[in-house]
C-alpha cells in the first residue's frame, strides 16, 4: 500500500507539456470525474434523485443531463431501496452504474440492498458474481440541518466486509477516485463531505488508488489520523500546534475500508503518539478501529495512550451553538494533542 | 356544507396567519435569524387549514419538514414555532429541531419528519395504540406526492387497511418532489387510484379550495373515527416558492407558477367572502393587521429568548428517568 505526501504538489506537467494541475473546487472535480467516466465508458450511467433536471441536490451533476441525455443521467423517484438495488442488478448485468444517494441519512432506506445484496453477493455465490457498482453520497454536519440530515455514518459502512469505502478529502482525490472505483469489481461507496464541496485546490486529473492513506503534513511529535471533512480541522490544528512548537503529522486515511494500516503504523512509529479525529460518534467508531489496530500492532511504539476526538454522542442538534458543541473543533484536536505530548 | 360566517372567517384567518408568518420567515432567513433548511407551504395553506381543522384535540398528527402550516393550524403557538426556528430554548423542540422538526406532544403533534415517507409508519403505530386503547382518536398523516414512491408508503397503506386502523392519509400533491415533476416520478399519477388499490376509500380534492378540503377532511375523519379503517385524501395543490431556501428552482416553467398563483387559496377564499358580504375591505385590513401584530410579537419574543445552555447538550438522549448517561 502506498502513502504519498502531497502537501507540496507542484505543477506536474507531463512529457508532452499538455497536462498540468487545474485549480478547481471539490464539487467541480467530482463533476469532472463523472463527465470523464460517462464520456469514456458507454456502460457507465448516473442515477439518483434529482441528479438531472434539478442539477443534483449539491449541484455536483449540474449540466450532465444536458450533455449526456436522460438515458445516462437518470432521475429516479424517491425510492432509495429500489434504485440502489437496481444499481446492483445493472452492475450484475454488465453496466457500470454510479448511484447517487442525496445524503448518507437517506441511504438507510437502501441499507438492506447495500448490505444484504451488494456486499454479500460475491462471497455468497462462491465468487460467481461481482457487483461493480459505485454509490456516491454526501455525509457530515455543519450547516444546521439537524438530526436527520447531519450524521456521519460512513463508519458503519466501513464495518461491512465486501464493501470498499472511500472518503475523498481533497480536490485531487475528488477528481481521481471515481475512475478506480468504477474499475473495481467490488461495490465502492464514495463519501463526499457536505462541508468540502466549495473547497478549492488543485487536481492533476490522475487516478488515486483506493487503498492508500496519504500523509498530508509531515511531523515528528504526534500522528493525527483523520479523513474526509475532518482533514481541514486537523490541518488547522497542526498549524496551531506548530506555532507552539509541536510538530504534528496529519494522515488522511482516504480509504475507510480497507484501512491502510501500514501508513498509520509507520507514522506512529515515527511520532509515538496517536490522535484520531473522526466526525462520527465515538462508540463503536472508525476512530475506535484505528486506535485498536495501533494498540494491537504498535503498542510498544506508543509513548502515550491514544486519544480520540469525535462528535458528541447526541443526534446532531439544529441550534448553531449546540451543533458547534457537538462537532470536533480545532480546539478539541489541539487539546487532545497536548494531552498526548504533555 | 353550510358554514357560518364565523367559521368562514376563521378559515381565512388561519390561512392568512400561515401565509404572513412564512413571508416573515423569508425575511428572517435572509438576515440569517433562521438557518438550515426551510421549506415553505406558501400556496398550500388550504390543505393545512382544511385538514387540521377537521381534527379534535385528542387526535394525532404526523407531518413532514414542510410543516409550519400544519403546526400553526394545530394550535402550536406561533411564538414557540418561531423560537424553534431561531434555535432558542423556548422553541417547541428547545431549539434542537429547527424548521423541519417541530414537536408538541401536548397537542399530539408528532413532528416534523425530514425523511421522506418516514412519518407514515409512525402514524400507523399511533393509530394502532389508539385502537388498542379503545380511544376514539384518529391520526392524520401528512406527506407529499414524492413519498408515494417510497416503499414505506405502500407498506403502511396495506398495514393500516389490513388492520383497519384509524389513519387519515393526507397526500399533499404539490406536483413536485424537489425538482422532479409528478409525471417524471410516477407511472400512475392518479395517486388516489393507487391508494384505493389497498382497499380504502380514496379520493382527490381541490387543495386550493379551503372549503373543499375542509369538507373532504371532515368526511374522512368521520368515517375513520367510526371504525371503518383508513382513508386516503389526495389534496391537489402547488407550492408557489422553491422547494427550500437552497433551491434555485431551475426545473419549472415560470408560466406554470403564474398559472397556479391564479388559484391562490388565500385570495380565492378572501374574494369569495368579500363577494358574499361576509367580509369587507376594512375587515380584511383589520384581519391582516391583527395577524401581523401576532407575528411581530412572536419575533420580539424569539429575539429575546435564551438559547439552551451547552451543558444540556446530552440531556434527553435517553429518557431522564432511565438514568442512562450518553
Ligand atoms: C428518504 C429521503 N430521500 C430524499 C430526501 C431529500 N428530499 C427532501 S424533500 C424531497 C422531495 C419530497 O417531495 P414530496 O414528498 O412531494 O414533498 P414536498 O417537498 O413536495 O412537500 C427530497 C427528495 C429525504 N429528505 N428523504
Ligand atoms: Mg411534492
Automatic annotation (TrEMBL), chain B:
What positions does the domain Dehydrogenase E1 component occupy? 14-309
EC class: oxidoreductase
Please name one Pfam family that this protein belongs to. Answer: E1_dh
Do you know which InterPro entries this protein is assigned to?
DH_E1, PDH_E1_Alpha_Subunit, Pyrv_DH_E1_asu_subgrp-y, THDP-binding
Instruction: Give the cofactors, semicolon-separated.
Output: thiamine diphosphate
CDD domains for the chain: TPP_E1_PDC_ADC_BCADC (cd02000)
This protein's record includes keyword Oxidoreductase: yes
Sorted UniProt keywords: Oxidoreductase, Pyruvate, Thiamine pyrophosphate
Q: Which reaction is the catalytic activity of this chain?
A: N(6)-[(R)-lipoyl]-L-lysyl-[protein] + pyruvate + H(+) = N(6)-[(R)-S(8)-acetyldihydrolipoyl]-L-lysyl-[protein] + CO2
Enzyme Commission code: 1.2.4.1
| Function per UniProt | The pyruvate dehydrogenase complex catalyzes the overall conversion of pyruvate to acetyl-CoA and CO(2).
Question: Quaternary arrangement and interactors, per the entry?
Answer: Heterodimer of an alpha and a beta chain.
Protein's UniProt name: Pyruvate dehydrogenase E1 component subunit alpha
- Whose protein is this, by species? Actinomycetospora lemnae
Starting at the broadest rank, the lineage of the source organism is:
Bacteria, Bacillati, Actinomycetota, Actinomycetes, Pseudonocardiales
Amino acid at each position: 500500500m502506498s502513502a504519498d505526501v502531497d502537501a507540496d504538489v507542484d505543477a506536474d506537467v507531463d512529457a508532452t507539456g499538455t497536462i498540468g494541475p487545474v485549480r478547481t473546487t471539490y464539487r467541480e472535480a467530482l463533476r469532472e470525474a463523472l463527465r470523464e467516466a460517462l464520456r469514456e465508458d458507454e456502460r457507465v450511467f448516473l442515477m439518483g434523485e434529482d441528479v438531472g433536471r434539478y442539477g443534483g441536490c449539491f449541484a455536483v451533476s449540474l449540466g450532465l443531463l444536458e450533455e449526456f441525455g436522460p438515458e445516462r443521467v437518470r432521475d429516479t423517484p424517491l425510492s432509495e431501496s429500489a434504485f440502489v438495488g437496481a444499481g446492483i442488478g445493472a452492475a450484475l448485468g454488465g453496466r457500470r452504474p454510479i448511484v447517487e444517494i442525496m445524503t448518507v441519512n437517506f441511504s438507510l432506506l437502501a441499507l438492506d440492498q447495500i448490505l444484504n445484496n451488494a456486499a454479500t453477493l460475491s462471497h455468497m455465490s462462491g465468487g460467481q458474481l461481482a457487483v461493480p457498482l459505485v454509490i456516491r453520497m454526501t455525509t457530515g454536519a455543519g450547516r444546521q440541518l439537524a438530526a436527520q440530515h447531519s450524521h456521519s455514518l460512513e463508519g458503519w459502512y466501513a464495518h461491512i466486509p465486501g464493501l470498499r469505502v472511500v472518503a475523498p478529502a481533497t480536490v485531487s482525490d475528488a477528481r481521481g477516485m471515481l475512475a478506480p472505483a468504477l474499475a473495481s469489481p467490488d461495490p465502492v461507496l464514495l463519501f463526499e463531505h457536505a462541508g468540502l464541496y466549495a473547497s478549492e485546490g488543485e487536481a492533476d486529473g490522475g487516478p488515486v488508488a483506493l487503498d492508500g492513506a496519504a500523509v498530508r503534513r509531515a511531523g515528528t511529535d504526534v500522528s493525527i489520523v483523520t479523513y474526509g471533512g475532518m482533514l481541514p480541522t486537523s490541518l488547522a490544528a497542526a498549524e496551531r500546534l506548530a506555532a507552539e512548537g509541536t510538530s504534528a503529522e496529519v494522515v488522511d486515511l482516504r480509504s475507510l475500508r480497507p484501512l491502510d494500516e501500514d501508513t498509520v503504523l509507520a507514522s506512529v512509529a515515527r511520532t509515538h503518539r496517536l490522535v484520531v479525529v473522526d466526525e462520527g460518534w465515538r462508540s463503536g467508531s472508525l476512530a475506535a478501529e484505528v486506535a485498536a489496530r495501533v494498540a494491537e500492532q504498535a503498542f510498544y511504539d506508543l509513548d502515550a495512550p491514544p486519544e480520540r476526538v469525535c462528535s458528541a454522542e447526541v443526534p446532531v442538534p439544529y441550534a448553531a451553538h449546540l451543533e458547534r458543541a457537538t462537532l470536533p473543533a480545532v480546539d478539541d484536536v489541539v487539546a487532545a494533542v497536548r494531552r498526548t505530548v504533555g | 356544507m353550510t358554514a357560518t360566517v364565523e367559521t368562514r372567517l376563521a378559515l381565512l384567518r388561519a390561512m392568512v396567519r400561515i401565509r404572513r408568518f412564512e413571508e416573515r420567515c423569508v425575511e428572517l432567513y435572509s438576515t440569517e435569524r433562521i438557518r438550515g433548511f426551510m421549506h415553505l407551504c406558501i400556496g398550500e395553506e388550504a390543505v393545512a387549514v382544511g385538514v387540521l381543522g377537521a381534527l379534535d384535540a385528542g387526535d394525532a398528527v404526523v407531518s413532514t419538514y414542510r410543516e409550519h402550516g400544519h403546526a400553526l393550524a394545530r394550535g402550536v403557538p406561533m411564538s414557540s414555532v418561531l423560537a424553534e426556528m431561531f434555535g432558542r430554548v423556548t422553541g417547541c423542540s428547545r431549539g434542537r429541531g429547527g424548521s423541519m422538526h417541530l414537536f408538541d406532544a401536548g397537542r399530539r403533534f408528532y413532528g416534523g419528519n425530514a425523511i421522506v415517507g418516514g412519518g407514515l409508519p409512525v402514524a400507523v403505530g399511533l393509530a394502532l395504540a389508539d385502537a388498542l386503547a379503545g380511544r376514539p382518536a384518529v391520526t392524520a398523516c401528512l406527506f407529499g406526492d414524492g413519498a408515494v414512491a417510497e416503499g414505506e408508503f405502500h407498506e403502511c397503506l396495506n398495514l393500516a387497511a389490513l388492520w383497519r386502523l384509524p389513519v387519515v392519509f393526507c397526500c399533499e400533491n404539490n406536483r413536485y418532489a424537489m425538482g422532479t415533476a409528478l409525471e417524471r416520478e410516477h407511472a400512475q399519477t392518479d395517486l388516489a387510484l393507487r391508494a384505493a388499490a389497498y382497499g380504502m376509500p380514496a379520493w382527490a380534492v381541490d387543495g386550493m379550495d379551503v372549503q373543499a378540503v375542509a369538507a373532504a377532511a371532515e368526511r374522512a375523519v368521520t368515517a375513520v373515527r367510526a371504525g371503518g379503517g383508513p382513508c386516503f385524501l389526495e389534496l391537489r395543490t402547488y407550492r408557489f416558492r422553491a422547494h427550500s431556501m437552497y433551491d434555485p428552482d431551475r426545473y419549472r416553467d415560470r408560466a406554470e407558477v403564474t398559472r397556479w398563483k391564479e388559484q391562490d387559496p388565500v385570495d380565492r377564499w378572501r374574494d369569495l367572502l368579500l363577494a358574499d358580504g361576509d367580509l369587507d375591505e376594512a375587515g380584511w385590513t383589520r384581519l391582516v393587521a391583527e395577524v401581523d401584530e401576532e407575528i411581530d410579537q412572536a419575533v420580539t419574543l424569539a429575539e429575546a429568548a435564551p438559547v439552551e445552555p451547552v451543558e444540556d447538550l446530552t440531556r434527553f438522549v435517553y429518557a431522564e428517568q432511565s438514568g442512562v448517561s450518553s
